[in-house]
Predict the 3D structure of the following.
Amino acid sequence: MKGVCLFFGLHQPLRLRRYRFFDIGNDHYYYDDYTNETILRNIAERCYLPANKLVLELINKYKNKFKVSYSITGVLIDQLETYAPDVLDSFRKLAETGQVEFLAETYSHSLACMGNKNEFIKQVNKHGQKIEQYFGIKPVSFRNTEMVYSDEIGSWVADMGFSAMLTEGAKHILGWRSPDFLYCNNINPRLKVLLRNFQLSDDIAFRFGNREWSEWPLTTEKYASWMKKRGKDAELINLFVDYETFGEHQKAETGIFKFLEALPGTLMKKTDFSFMTPAEVALEFQPVSAIKVPYPISWADEERDLTAWLGNDLQNAAFDKLYSLTYRVDGCENESINKDWEFLQVSDHFYYMCTKFFSDGAVHQYFNPYESPYDAFMNYMNVLSDFEIRLDSVCPEHVENKELITLRKKVDAIQEELNERETEVRKLRAKIKSMTVSTTSTPTATGKTDTGKKPVKQTSQKTGTTTTTRKTTSTKKK
């Protein structure tokens, strides 16, 4: 048996607004809602909705012979809930077919694996719960942010109970070996490791619409012939691409959707490969060996390392400052603080600070909303400064500040109680006043209002008793 694993990753960052120095301490909202909504709706219309519709048609057409897998970041799910719930509905329909696997990853599409292990585990668990909540599927396979992997990270993933993990088939870790086989983690062999065939994947993701490419135009027949040739010395080809490839990075005019529509049928007809999900691969294949990755790799840039996010002083300073706050945020129960903490960890913030040149630099510039890496750094650090001020106001770092905040909370509680009592007193006074007015202004039986004159007391000289009579006016006869 030969398998082909078709995997799509989905992510959209939550972009920050222009946050200036004078906003620090005065304005605590950091996000460019208009830009985020506009971009997401455009991508939903150009990519997510038509691609999901096409994949569903292919699944129904080929029944259980066509299978795909997805990884959707928690940050993207949050945005889809707000701006494009119809996209989530279309993914639910795909989940109902039983031919789609949804993978786990970090909720914030973060590099928490490089910043704090506990934060990494917390985010992975939260993301898994979100996937199960929306699609009724508990993830058993894992894709880390940007395919970041190392022996140590893989061992953490294995300890969390996952059976398979996806990463890049980087040349410098493979040496003479091929990415077209199944491997296992070097520390914990229970974790199966699927390696991306970057050449065949990038032919679709990056080169498909390039008219200067020597192989343009790419047809499914040509692509199938390449896979058949590799299949002579392979048992598993992993095609991992961004889902935004379809309709966003490669526009519909390039024919990318027609290519995807024809691909399953052509591969089934021209090759011996069968479509499989990562979970099925982990069950059906045996690892040929452990893969040794002592230092983290990713699927980004020529180096296939972490320099796209942590390759210069700007990135490292921002990253270190962010994760220095981890232990304080862990003890904070403020919902707004925790939500901003998740969004500030999105790896794209550090990607925008990259200072690379040449072809890699062009790719970074394509995705960068800032004029320069330095603008990205200053904007992010301004936001982070305000976040730290807010964090210090509710979860301070020093013991003295903690005691001060505790006392302040007690004073606020006492003041709130006093305000409530004062409100009750005002209500009682108003009620007493209304009762007094009604007593002194009672209508008589004749319908006239009593004048309110008091009776006059008179004392009888004979008996010594006191009688009460009303004063009256009379005319004395002479």
User: Anything to note?
Assistant: DSSP finds 19 helices and twelve strands in the chain. Residues 444-478 have pLDDT under 50 and may be disordered.
